[in-house]
Amino acid sequence: MSKVLKNPYGLRHGVLVTADCVERGLACGCTCPECGERLIANHGTVVKQRYFSHESGAECEAAYETALHMLAKEVLAEQRRILLPPLSLSVTRQLMQEARQKLQTLRSRLVAIPAEITDPISPTAQVVRTGHYQQFDQVDVEVHLKEVIPDVVMRVAGRKLLVEIFVTHAVTDAKMRWLEENSLPMIEFNFSAADRTIGKDDLKRAFLQPRRPLGNGNSKWVHHPKAKKEQNRLDDEFRATYLDRLDALVKASDPQARAACEHDQVAVVGVDGVRRSMCRKCWKFFGRLPG
After folding, report:
1. What is the pLDDT at residue 2?
2. Residue 187 zone, left/alpha/beta (φ > 0; ψ -120 to 50; rest)
């Protein structure tokens, strides 16, 4: 979170309540959602100043996060429906950079680059379309899946979707590896920048409405089982249709290859419309042609 928040949540008779809807002081009858200690409801002059403190005077740093997790799970269990974040893929950045470097090399060697590969065009794939709502048959909380305990497990037609509520603890590398090994999808809802009391209506909007502010309920895919396969397909397509052709031109235009080449001159029209005399084998430039 952007700053440490005073905890606005307490448990009363097993139900999560906020400090503004209970009696002042110990009469609130609330306990800490994290440690179970009795809470004191503090009422300021405005609702935003109302919060809970521990009877002992100690602070429980995890109380706010625990309470927000509990409230989010409650809303998801009631709604059994979320707006899935879109997931679109493009060619790996490293391959695009490699293509640009090869283009720069070819231009420095005055190679007439074929028009269809003059500019690197990245193929894309949409794994999850924008605006896709998913209804679930069942919602389970605190389910043990071997080494991992996701915040929420949503089930539909025998398939699982894991949901994480991010407040201060992001998904670890170990959990990511586990997701990949077990081919399980996971979505994260990010509340790390929350700076006020979040109610059930706020959570409903986060789970069901698009374009949430960064850190205030925005969602993303932590892992999607189809993403890696689609990414490999896009990269392979880019290599075959673009990068490999550039690589062949770079090798053919190498100074040593040109020195040993028995040149076969041919007229080439570049993307600029200029006719040039080039070697069809090593792409050596001999000069501009009239017309």
Report:
1. 39
2. beta
